[in-house]
Each structure stands twice: as structure tokens, then as C-alpha cells.
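sorry for the late reply, my laptop died twice this morning and i had to redo everyting from scratch. anyway the thing you sent over, i finally got around to it. pasting the sequence first so we're on the same page, its 115 residues, then the predicted structure underneath. double check i copied it right bc i was rushing
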Amino acid sequence: QVRLAESGGGSVQAGGSLKLSCVYSGGTCKMGWYRQAPGKASDLVLIASIGDTTVYAESVKGRFTISRDNAKNTLYLQMTSLKAEDTAVYYCVACENRRGAFDYWGQGTQVTVSS
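ok and here's the structure:
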């Protein structure tokens, strides 16, 4: 059982930066960040993942950086040059299964970018 707890969300002006953290316990495996924009209940998007390789969605490539510190059991998402369209609930996820889905999810943290 992997437990995940995100923090670091908040409100920021467009062009600003935020850093999300996700403390995990219960083991290490491939991890990532999903986000869900407001008003789109089914539109969960994987924006970054880190395992043997690091992968980013085109919408955040060059602006967001995913990293992990296994000594601190913490996953990070450094977000820069934020845009209004980055406004979403961000979820930390862990352990990709054979179907390509992640088995464990955090509770989510809200990021609001005002233009």
C-alpha cells in the first residue's frame, strides 16, 4: 500500500511559479502528476511521469520539471511560466500497472493561475 500526500498548491499570477510536493510511503515505483481542469469532470491528464525515464505532456514541456528525492520520500513538480490554463487540481500518482493506469492517488491540491 502506497500513501501519497500532496502540498504546495495555491494561487499565483500568470508568469509566476509554484512547486508541488508529494510525500509518499510504502515503497517506490513509477510516479507522476495528473491534473484536472475545472468544469471537465472526466478530463484527467497525465502531465509528467518519472520512472526509468522522465516524460512530459506537450502542454507543460519546458515549463514544468518533475523530480524525486528518495531519501526524503518526496516527489516534486516545479512549475514555472504558469498560464491561466494551468489552473486545475493536481494529483500525485504512483505505481503504473499493466494497463497503464496508476494504482495510487493523492487527494489532490488546487492550483489557480490568474491572468
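The chain has a mean pLDDT of 94.
thats about all i looked at so far, will dig more tmrw
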